[in-house]
Amino acid sequence: SSRQRFLSFFFIPH
Amino acid sequence: MFEARLAQGSIFAKVIEGLRELVTEATWECSGNGITLQAMDSSHVALVSLVLRSDGFETYRCDRNMSLGISLTSMSKVLKMMGKDDTLTIRVNDDSDAIVLSMESQNQEEFAEYELRLMDLDSEHLGIPDTDYSCVVKMPSTKFSRICRDMAILGDSVTICSTKDGVKFGAKGDVGQGSIRLNQSTNVDKEEDAVSIELREAVALTFAVRYLNMFCKAAPLSNQVNLSMSEDTPLMCEFKVGDMGHIRFYLAPKIED
Fold first, then answer.
1. In which region does residue B53 sit, left (phi positive, over 0), alpha (psi from -120 to 50) or beta (all else)?
2. What is the mean pLDDT of residues B228-232?
3. pLDDT score of B125 more than 60
4. What residues of chain B lie within 8 A of the CB of A3, using their CB?
5. How many CB pairs under 8 A join A and B?
6. DSSP state of B37
7. What does the pLDDT average to over B236-248?
């Protein structure tokens, strides 16, 4: 979905 | 203690107006470098990133890094009480659970002070990768606002097609369809009126126009807007905040099923 692709573009830094 | 003073308080009010439709509450990160904010909308298809550098303020003091959970809805209401030429000072005292907004009239005859309680917000900080976009369209922000408003009359989505010669915004829906094409400016007296396109590759992307219209609430901050696009990558819609920073909105393109 658009949302999943959108979130996969960004990343959560650890 | 944190204290930042802005001679033109109206700039800060415009920043809040630019954000508050997309995100109603957000965590402000304050450090010696300035104020940053990053937040997603509730449906997780748009992200906003704000930077206000410390050197853009008249005075700026931040003794230690602070995360301030703030209701933008409440802050917007408080800032509406500010006179248009007022100076604004934002302060958070040590061990305080409130942010203090002080407004001073230009003739220094009126001084108002409001306190807003800070909130405990869960926030997930996402990394925004550096991206080489295929295309960057720069255009007057008023023109972009008008086009987004007009496209919303025709449909829910707007398709932005950009080539080296120009950019076309199109929408279609139950009532009909329409498009607006802007050619790259060849000769303009004022830079702020120009449409310019930096292009490596032509792009055609479709977005929910409702979100673009929310982004346009930040248009009063800047004469120009930058639209950075690549296929299959979120749109970056940027408004500069004077010389002190920017608001960048990111929006997922719609994908045909």
1. beta
2. 95
3. yes
4. 43-45, 252
5. 38
6. E
7. 97
pLDDT score at A13: 62
Tell me, yes or no, if B130 comes closer than 8 A to chain A by beta carbon: no
Report CB contact under 8 Å: B127, A9: no
Q: Is B75 helix (H, G, I), strand (E, B) or coil?
A: helix
Which DSSP state fits B219?
A: G
Interval B205-222: pLDDT, tens: 999 999 999 999 999 999
Which of residues 1 through 14 in chain A touch B, CB cutoff 8 A?
1-3, 5-7, 9-13
Query: In this complex, do A2 and B255 lie within 8 Å of one another by their Cβ atoms?
Result: yes
Nearest CA-CA partner of B14 in B75, B70, B61: B75
Give the type of residue at B130: D
Tell me which H or E stretch contains B66. Answer: strand B66-71
**Is the minimum CB–CB distance between B171 and chain A shorter than 8 Å?**
no
